[in-house]
Amino acid sequence: MKDFISDFFFHAYKWQPHSRLLKIQEKQFSQKPAKMQWWYYDFFSDDGLIGVLAFIPQKWWPDSQSVTTNDTYVMLSLRHVGGRVEQYVETLDSDKFVFKDNGLHIGDCITLNYNVETGRSHHQLEFDFGGIRGRLDIASNTDPFSALPLGTLSGLARMIGGQSEWSRSQFRYVSQIPAGAIQGQLVRVGKEINFSGYAYHEQGRFDDEPHRLNKGWYWYHFLHPECNIFGLPEGYIYVRMKDQVILGGMCLFVEKYRMEKKKFENKTSHNILTGGRIRYESKDIKIEINLNSDTNQELIQFNAINTGQLWNTSVVESSCSIKIKDKQHDFSGKAMLETCWLQK
Q1: How far apart are the first and last CA of the chain?
Q2: What are the C-alpha distances in Å from 148 to residues 131, 226, 237, 300, 319?
Q3: How far is the C-alpha of 291 from the C-alpha of 103, rounded, in Å?
Q4: CA 199, CA 196: separation in Å to the nearest integer?
Q5: Where are the alpha helices (DSSP H) in the chain?
Q6: Number of helices and strands (H, E) in the chain?
Q7: Is the CB of residue 92 less than 8 Å from the CB of residue 109?
Q8: pLDDT in tens, the chain (344 residues)
Q9: Are 259 and 296 in contact (CB under 8 A)?
Q10: For the chain, what is the largest distance between any 2 Cα atoms, rounded to a whole number of angstroms?
Q11: Are 273 and 339 in contact (CB under 8 A)?
């Protein structure tokens, strides 16, 4: 019975109501911005460029003396093939964050339009801030997915699960583009870069103070043209290999899915994840991802000036092996690592 229950939730992607998950995206663009809300994209090109673009309508915490948590925050980081990292950030007044039909404007910094005409998300972004401008066209190759079976989790359920303080606010969290194709153009200092490749996108919303959501998390995303894996160790996992989803859902029993040999950097009052080994094991599927901490490069860090709260994203060299029954598949690539601490 234990194995049956575990497999049922680890394969939630098979029975999740995709139309409901797309409706959650509509609400994301039609309701008043929340206290804690985000749009996150990461991408990698065919020729090795890696990028992270994220924006939040209200800062989760003050990151300098001159701003308040009413400010909107936009961030972009690029890692070039040789390892050089470029960071671009912009802080704006919150009234610059404006929803419109099927999209949003953030001042003159970002315009986002989306549609779901094919039953899957298609996002088109234009941006100009911090000395860089560009366009991104991202079309999902698969159905949306949520670590939460129905895309939302109530405050009572989170509190019973020991994840958070009491809050009446629902938590909404959906990967609207678990795996997508990207066409992009970047222009900076008069130099133009055109690229194509692969992209990921998620959205989250929690209409309360961040520290009421939970203590924080470590998240990862393994990047490879034929193998796309992301999740929270001991929390949830999504695996898409060679255009087929083979796993996607919540972890109820941690012995089946865990992270070992974690490596950290102590830059703040909280540890920042820099590497380790992730393992998943069931009757028919075995997965191992090795994250080389010696190659860790920081892409973006957003931290509070007066508490230990932070959001950090980095990239590492990594390898992945997937064994399905008696057939093994091996991949070498890179992985995004995210450390987020919400408690004050």
Answers
A1: 40
A2: 38, 25, 11, 26, 27
A3: 36
A4: 10
A5: 2-10, 18-30, 155-160
A6: 3, 22
A7: yes
A8: 666 677 788 889 999 999 999 999 999 999 999 999 999 999 999 999 999 999 999 999 988 877 778 899 999 999 999 999 999 999 999 999 999 889 999 999 999 999 999 999 999 999 999 999 999 999 999 999 999 989 998 866 666 556 656 677 889 999 999 999 999 999 998 899 999 999 999 999 999 888 888 889 999 999 999 999 999 998 999 999 989 999 999 887 767 899 999 999 876 667 899 999 999 998 889 999 999 999 999 999 998 988 889 999 999 999 999 999 999 999 999 999 999 999 87
A9: no
A10: 62
A11: yes
Q: Which two tokens stand for residue 50?
A: 């890696």
**3-class DSSP state of 39:** strand
CA–CA gap between residue 334 and residue 329 (Å, rounded): 16
Using CB atoms within 10 Å of the CB of residue 279, give its burial: 0 to 12 exposed, 13 to 18 middle, 19+ buried: middle
Predicted TM-score (pTM) of the model is 0.95
Take residue 89 and report the two structure tokens written for it. Answer: 């950030």
On the CB side of 113, CA atoms within 13 Å amount to 5
